[in-house]
Amino acid sequence: MNYFLSLISMFVIFIGNVNAADVLMSLAQQKSLGVVVAPVGKNNLLSSRRFPAEIVIPVGQERIVSAPQSGLLDQMHVAAGQTVKKGQVIAHLISPDLLGLQRDYLQALTQKRLATKALARDTELLKDGIIAQRRHLETESAHDEASANLAQRKQALKLAGMSDGAISKLSPSAGMMSGLSLVAPISGQVLEQMVTTGQRVDMAMPIYRIAKMSPLWLEIHAPLEGLPFVKEGMQVQVPKLQASGHLIAVIRSVNKADQTLHLRAEITKGAEKLSPGQFVEAEINLGGQSQYFSVPKSALARQGASALVFAQTQAGFKPIKVTIISEQGDDAVVDAPFVGTEKIAVSGIAAIKGTWLGLGGE
To answer: Beta 71-76 vs 200-201: how paired, if at all?
Structure first.
């Protein structure tokens, strides 16, 4: 080992105006020591690459309109592809079961009115001392029970699709409704029509799928090695369709099939050019992190927990400290003050490092 270091020292030329920590070595000397250099590479693990992605509808922007009761769909007013407003009538359902619910409600309404009158009467009689306190309590209890029963029947009608306005108009003299209108729960586009006019449906059977189409989500599959470089807020583009947005989630759940990283972006610009279920190619803008560089592992000279590389100069090599971001295969991604045009030593590192340490390098 001492002989090897002495041999290296024979090739070293000292120039007074050069930093003592720089390694001075001519091209001929580099060749004789087996030193090979190569240009540093920009980290292209994520930047300048396109990744497969799928357009999906964000959670909370999609609704399913289902049949509140079993019956017959005698009218359908919209079809897939049409735009609807919240509260717009989109279909009409004839339901025999609805008649039964209205009958139960009207009976409960009558019982409540009778119980209210009985309570008012017994309250007056109690004040006059004509009836006992126990009789008044029994009447009050019957009134509370009738009120609860009426509230339950009213809620059943609301679940069946009747509005408060329609329910308030119900009375024994006014008659009952044989059907009800289905309305759009949100403003958006009808994505799917699951049934047709004249079809009989069961309770909770889906009829329409409606969604708000802006913004949309982009589910991206990127290399798992890119995890250290991505974070929420980064810009995302769909170049072919001129759509863009930003990352809103880095999901730490790896796809078992292809070992990819799951990223979610929200598309806020150009969403009208995209459709749910569409597969596209997405680009991620790493911003300042695009200054990370890719170097061969063989170029790294390690010193405990830190590392450095030797950048070629006109006189030899200059040691540059780097921060290792990730390692994969034969390459490593480092954070270093490179311009991008440097050439670094990728072999013969032991010889260069030995000379550098002999010059007082730390």
So the answer is: antiparallel
